[in-house]
Design brief:
Layout: E1 2-6, E2 9-12, E3 17-24, E4 32-38, E5 45-51, E6 57-59, E7 67-72, E8 77-82, E9 91-98, E10 108-111, E11 115-120
Parallel strand pairs: 2-11
Antiparallel strand pairs: 1-3, 3-8, 4-5, 4-9, 5-6, 7-8, 9-10, 9-11
Length: 121
């Protein structure tokens, strides 16, 4: 099982980035795929999730209206489109897959290694 994130980088406040999570080694359509982030000195938090089965999504209040999660089931890939980025969005972003989404990540069985997003003011 492998989850590989890409797309992180340095961006100015107000800018956009799109993160990708390429999955392999499990039945993609049977899982919830989620993005989490961890900023320096802070606990990991859930950002967004998507059911690859029915397409339902959820977002944390801090990113609602700015971030969009979507999946390309044919490519076994989930994306996180991040717009209007703020310095507070600076963190390592992790992709995870599991049976259900909770903010603490308990429902996730597989994790990627993360990709760093830095937003300058």
């Amino acid at each position: 099982v492998q989850l590989v994130e890409s797309g992180g980088g340095l961006v100015h406040a107000g800018g956009s980035l799109r993160l990708s999570c390429a999955a392999s080694g499990f039945i993609f359509d049977d899982y919830v795929i989620a993005w989490f982030r961890q900023a320096p000195g802070k606990e990991r938090e859930g950002v967004a999730s998507i059911s690859t089965y029915d397409g339902s999504t959820s977002y944390s209040d801090s990113v609602k209206g700015r971030f969009t999660i979507y999946a390309d089931n044919a490519k076994n890939t989930v994306y996180l489109q991040m717009n209007n980025l703020e310095p507070e969005d600076t963190a390592v972003y992790y992709c995870a897959a599991g049976a259900f989404f909770t903010d603490d990540g308990e429902g996730m069985d597989y994790w990627g290694k993360g990709t760093l997003v830095t937003v300058s003011s």
